[in-house]
Amino acid sequence: MDKLINQGTAWAALKKHQKYLAPVHLRDLFALDSQRFERFSIETCGLFLDYSKNRLTNDTLTLLQHLATEANLADWIARMFQGEKINNTERRAALHIALRNRSNCPISVDGKDVMYDVNAVLAKMRLFSNAVRDGKWRGYTGKPIESIVNIGIGGSDLGPAMVTRALNTYHHPRLQSYFVSNVDGAHLSETLAKLDPETSLFIIASKTFTTQETMLNARSARQWLINKLGNDKAVAKHFVAISTATQKVTEFGIDSAHQFEFWDWVGGRYSLWSAIGLPIALMIGQDNFEQLLDGAHELDKHFETAPLLKNLPVLMGLIDVWYSSFWGATTQAILPYDYTLALFPAYLQQLVMESLGKRVTREGNRVDYPTSSIIWGAPGNNGQHAFYQLLHQGTHLVPADFIIALDSQHDLPGHQEAVLSNALAQTHALMMGRNIEETRAELEILKSTSLQKGEIGKFDKLPHRVFPGNQPTNTLLYKKLTPAVLGKLIALYEHKVFVQSVCWGINPFDQWGVELGKQVASILLPTLQTDQEKTAHLGYDSSTKGLLNYIKIYRSR
Ligand code: F6P
């Protein structure tokens, strides 16, 4: 059995170091070092990261660097960029970086340079998106397209939906986008109710073209269109597909000219840069889509070449490992103070948890340390009035990323200052807290004014008004969320996840855990579809059998 990372010297040293740092409050670290902000912040690729409000010192970083070195991080980064089959359980490369390899240097998989195919698909996307946007692509009855409906789930939905939402100020004025993912017919039917079949374009996005939710929604949407337009020939003008399974797309009835290909070396949750990004390109134009790729490429170059402790994804990844593996943090909050990033936490849930939610190493050995954090979050100001109470006074350690745009996408006076002041107030308060002496002093001032009004009751609530602080945060700043900046931001988190996976020795590019639910659902479905009131349901537990029978009896009435 290969040695687990926690059996190495760096891990042991970090454990010892954590014990030393555990009683130290963040406010003490700031008091001790007037240069702390300068020391623990970095600006690169148009992103500024302040990581000074973390429970770390120079020694911590040195030890984390040792850990990365023991895990051969530099080597793994090189292997990914060279197109090695680092997704060992599926025997595939993980080459999302090739999809945005704007310098076009050759990248080989099985001895073939993939850049020719990558560029050919980008060119096809350009032709198609231009035709739709310019109104030259017409629906079956001759009208230009007005609604773009992406049908997909997981990586074939979350990435494109998040980016399309984030870049809404770049949208074509005639076009409206919809993302249908849930197999609950409510999602599709609510969407269809808003559509005019004559002006709607459906994109069936599925890497495998077998995913139950997507295929059922796709078939229902096709039937709806045929019913509305009265001819199945209409499908050719209103349906396109994005998939690695071209044969299955043809069998579904979508002409090869309307298929956009990608490849098995693109993981679902890393695929928004591929043809899966077609709904983005349609909404914001191919030039802007390619700026998204340019931004990601710039970050890729930084990740590939910068020294470990000057490397943004490496720093953020190591800081996460520090909290998960040494401080027992089980969750991480993603808090965008940029409303256009409303879907970013949901997107990151898949990116992080599907990648890092693993319990065995690449070699299949059981790890005996925690891996992925549970990712959650919401746009900052909304979160403040919902769950921040727990961050301020609850009992959990919750490292949080504050993601902040300096410039807004609008020109309403006064709003951006409110956003910025709230974000900074929160990171300050989460770090500093308010100790008992400060609370008492504040109450004394309050008392002198309020007592005259007879408000005595609130002054015996001292412990309720104390804030422990010491909650760690990263603050990530950028000027404005342009396509290029968003590309950098997404690539930053993708690579951060990779760094964590290397430190923990796990494969971040497979997702076997999702399979079991899919398998069981596919066996249960025919059972629910039979007319028989009760079925034997051999092999199910008594709860599942009982529920199945309850549902069948109810539905048969
Ligand atoms: O939910 C698991 C998963 O395999 C994801 O990894 C993937 O993004 C999603 O399903 C959709 O798969 P497909 O694109 O093949 O329909």
| Shape field | globular
Which small compounds were modeled alongside the protein?
6-O-phosphono-beta-D-fructofuranose
- Nearest-integer average pLDDT: 95
Largest sheet: number of strands, sense, barrel closure:
6 strands, mixed
- The DSSP helix count reads 23
Whole-angstrom Rg:
26 Å
Cross-sheet strand order for the largest sheet = 1-2-13-12-10-11
What structural class do you assign from the helix and strand content? alpha/beta
Question: Could you explain how this protein is built, in words?
Answer:
With 557 residues, the chain is α/β, with parallel strands linked by helices. It contains 23 helices and 13 strands. α12 (246-252) links the parallel β8 and β9. 6-O-phosphono-beta-D-fructofuranose is lined by residues 153-156, 206-208, 211, 214, 268-269, 354, 511, 514.
Topology:
Elements lengths: L8 H13 L4 H7 L3 H4 L1 E4 L2 E4 L7 H13 L2 H9 L14 H4 L8 E2 L2 E2 L1 H19 L13 E5 L6 H9 L9 E5 L4 H8 L7 E6 L6 H18 L5 H4 E5 L2 H7 L6 E3 L16 H7 L1 H20 L6 H15 L4 E7 L6 H13 L17 E4 L2 H5 L3 H6 L6 E6 L9 H18 L3 H15 L22 E6 L4 H22 L8 H17 L12 H15 L1
Parallel strand pairs: 5-6, 5-7, 7-8, 8-9, 10-11, 10-12, 12-13
Antiparallel strand pairs: 1-2, 2-13, 3-4
The structure holds 6-O-phosphono-beta-D-fructofuranose.
The site of 6-O-phosphono-beta-D-fructofuranose (F6P) has 14 residues, from loops.
